[in-house]
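HOLO CASE FILE
Compound: arginine
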Amino acid sequence: MPVSFNLAADLDAALRAAAARAGWADAAAFVPEVRVADVRHGDFQANGVLAHAKARKLNPRATAEQLVAALPAELRPAYAITIAGPGFINFTLQPAMLLAWLREFDSAAKLRAGAAAAHAGQTWVVDYSAPNTAKQMHVGHLRSAVIGEAICRLLEFTGARVIRDNHLGDWGTQFGKLIYGYKRWADPAALARDPIEELERLYKRGNDATPEGSPELEEARRELVKLQQGDPENVALWRKFSDVSLAAFQQIYDRLGIRFDHHLGESFYNDKLDRVYAELADAKLAENSQGALVVFHDEHPRFSRNAERPNPFMVRKADGASGYASTDLATALYRREHFQADGIVVVTDFRQADHFEQLILTVKKWFAAKGYRMPEFHHVTFGAVTDEDGKALKTRSGDVIKLKALLDEAEERAYAIVAEKNPEVPEPERRAIARVVGIGAVQYADLSQNRSSNYVFSWDKMLSLEGNTAPYLLYAVARIHSIFRKAGGPGNEAAATPPETPAEIILARKLTKFPDAIRLATETLRPHYLSLYLFELAGDYSSFNNADKVLVDDPGLRARRLLLCARTLLILETGLGLLGLRTVQRM
Ligand code: ARG
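Model generated. Tokens follow.
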């Protein structure tokens, strides 16, 4: 019998077919509602019979019995099937089936092939990180990068073609002041040493030198207009600002394992805005309001023209200038037309929720009016990064924490732990391990918390070897590698017998739930569901390790325990990889 990757989906299909086979009048309307069950009740539970029977005034228990009787015979050896309470159907995987599943999914490629059905054939554009140029990335930029990358990997794993697009903030009025400052006070040595630091200094200096109403401000505005009109000198400067910014960002991205396919910043859309204005006006979506072009959504309490404080979507400002809304509208169209996106994900903090709600409402109506296909469009939000007292994370002196410094500190702190635990490991390897553990700790601490909550940043917690942390999981991985080193190579999987001891069975059952964790994390675009699964898996592995000796003499027993080790390793490494973490072989 072929073994499916996602057993819950399999059972769902079997139950639907059984309803038809049982001759139910409206079998097509039956929703089995198969869920992963609490381990004490089994592996999967179908809850849908109850609602179905009740709505039709049937006896739920009898209906469930009918359904179970109509299940295909080949399901019997795979599951123990029981009916509980008023009509819940419980399925418990039998040891032979556990072994069959573990045998079948023996490589990352197999896991991926199993998961790929969810988004096969689809193209998704993921817009994340997206810092503003000419400024350093600080701790506030961490979450979008880390969460966005995990989402890209989950979408890819589930079959999508993913386009990673860094929507840089590379356009706006600040460039007038920066050019003004640059032309007067640029220090070539400082620019060579740390270009972004110098650009930040020049912007501050330019800003201080151009107070409201001053002739200096007029001059800065002229620099901006020149840039907008394509003056070669100012355009060259602006391009230089983008280039040095990107080079600095890339150093951070390298450390986080991020590679963008495109850096289509706001400026890229400058020549694509007129079409947006024209089409929105044409469709009678946008209207003139005191010289500006705006969109109201009257069905929405806050975006309606009758709202207490009207807050329309600002498509074009009264002075004719474009803004954040204008470029995001053009961006949506470009992603649909040029990339043929089936899905768009934009990752920013929750403070942009209103902007994206208005954007999505507007794009829906606009695309409907023009007959363009509307992609699935998700704004993925996250909370702030705070210290343990819930306050915005700052340095001791109260400054924002630069991302580079934060990652440096993570590696330093991890090094102290690694050096202490591994005095015999050569120095370069200790450094390499510390990089993986340190950066992984920062990524994982973010990804293990529900992204809607604030990310409470605590060095001690994230670097602890206990609890739901990267060091704990990475250590579990390293421990399994060490077992294989001791075993002198992989086990003889063909000789493996079905799991038997309680700890073996619990671990094997947990391994078969990986597909569900992937499904949940991907459907909700919430990586913490995968983190939680990996943490629980590592716990079940650790219980197994404490209860059952792996390297025993009995060949069948040794083979099956090594098989469990190998699959735990595979799924931990695959899962951590999907979260953007690297792993190590010893730690
Ligand atoms: N540059 C923006 C910021 O720093 C984020 C851009 C997100 N993407 C977008 N398409 N608006 O807040």
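CASE NOTES: The chain has a mean pLDDT of 96. The two ends are 41 Å apart (CA to CA).
CLOSED: yes
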